[in-house]
Amino acid sequence: MTAFRKTHFPLGQIRRHLEPGPIVLISSAWKGQTNIMTMGWHVMLSFSPALFGTYIWDGNHSFEMLRRSKECVTNVPTVDLIEEVVGIGNSSGDRIDKFKEFGLTPVPGLVVRAPAIKECYASFECQLIDAKLIPKYGLFIWRVVKAHVAASVKSPQTIYYRGQGVFMVAGRTINRRRKFKPQNL
Amino acid sequence: MTAFRKTHFPLGQIRRHLEPGPIVLISSAWKGQTNIMTMGWHVMLSFSPALFGTYIWDGNHSFEMLRRSKECVTNVPTVDLIEEVVGIGNSSGDRIDKFKEFGLTPVPGLVVRAPAIKECYASFECQLIDAKLIPKYGLFIWRVVKAHVAASVKSPQTIYYRGQGVFMVAGRTINRRRKFKPQNL
After folding, report:
1. What does the pLDDT read at residue B1?
2. Is the N-terminal amide bond of A108 cis, ω within 30° of 0?
3. Which terminus of chain B, N or C, has less C-beta within 10 A?
4. Which residues of B touch A139 (CB under 8 A)?
5. Cα-based angle B172, B177, B178 (whole degrees, multiple of 5)
6. Model pTM above 0.95
């Protein structure tokens, strides 16, 4: 596993990493415990402020930790972490320490207490700014307050969940920049 | 362009096509006009009922058409439609008929009045069930009421937007089914 060296990334551009809809690892901390969950139900909601929504099932051990701590780090793994992604998604933090169990390195957040995951190429520190949609839709509205991305990673081999245990890995890129209106870039 | 032959697809499994976060084409109809928009800010919210959320900017011509008609079709294009996806995203329906302009074929919805796009391999008919989050978050909560998917398409070459005019095309698949707990499949 690669322990990425990440640097500050502009909040106004985080859509580049989140809009494509990759599987993310949500890390949390509450009352001296940390946890990680695998998650694919998320959405960009605003550029500035940088808002991000996540659906989280209340059966997840992370649910109460996130709701109470009002913080998380959204980490984006690449395909070299596929076994960890699957393992984390198929185990529960009420019985194991997932950082230890899966050999991942917690990195203290700069703004939030939840730890980032060193082995993910991008980490976004988030604060819960609206909990009102949780009861009806399981929807947490986060404000991303700090972004860390490994500048060395140009075309991240992010992974996408297709259900039934099948993942898709990011493929080739196509640049259509010249076909865009400047205001749409 | 392929005019896909789609058949009924179970609503409880639409996550297979929407969770990976591909660029979608949202089609709408209102007062005798139709429109299409390109969109990547969406999220699965529930299996049953099949709920799906979309962020839509109020500067889009589709915004009022969707809000008033309370219906849409969410169509999933593949990479052979990349030029249409870019063209649709960089033009406005207040000046052109996008179906005509981009040579796409509208197919009447079975449940909703908004037309599906024949050249997309998957189409999901949606009804707006909650408009309350639109003013604050631009978030439309849709219930998918009918799903149509081309059974012939096994690993769709869906496309993902990375910002700045750059798209990523779906790559290889990895099957980790045997590592999943049955209740997580």
Report:
1. 79
2. no
3. C
4. 45, 53
5. 130
6. yes
